[in-house]
Design brief:
The chain has about 170 residues and is α+β, with helices and mostly antiparallel strands. It contains 8 helices and 5 strands. The chain binds FE2/S2 (inorganic) cluster.
Length: about 170
Amino acid sequence: MSQAVEEKVEEQEIDLSGANQILDKYTDFPGALMPVLQEIQEHYGYIPEPTVHLAAERLNIYASQIYGVLTFYAQFHLEPRGKYIIRVCMGTACHVKGAGRIAETIKDRLGVGHAETTEDLKFTAEYVACIGACGMAPVIMVNDATFGSLTVQKTDEVIQKYQKMD
Ligand code: FES
């Protein structure tokens, strides 16, 4: 491991053994950047910076090339994300029916706005375009579950339900 990677690891206290194991499988496949990044994200929940430098070193490509891929594809995240991703629909139907109020309630109760994560890494909020459930507007999703016809009170209930979960 180069000194640059070691410094990044110390800075962020990341255990690179998981990333090394993933990279071990792909050492003979230099074009395997996408599956490598997908597996790293699956392992850590996001792509920690030291793993980018490690992957660059081991796949013999520039870190800048990897950052290019990471910023191009919305599926990759460079910051830790919450266990529960709350997607607040901001599409037209939801907007008209009070999505702003729902987003404010979430911000007020959890302290997170768009693309923000609570310090305990439990919740990440994301404001998204229409999620195809306009008949139930305003709508949020928490991971795969959809909650519609929301009021401030119902939003509170949803938040409380997930707060009680691990
Ligand atoms: S606008 Fe929100 S689900 Fe379509």
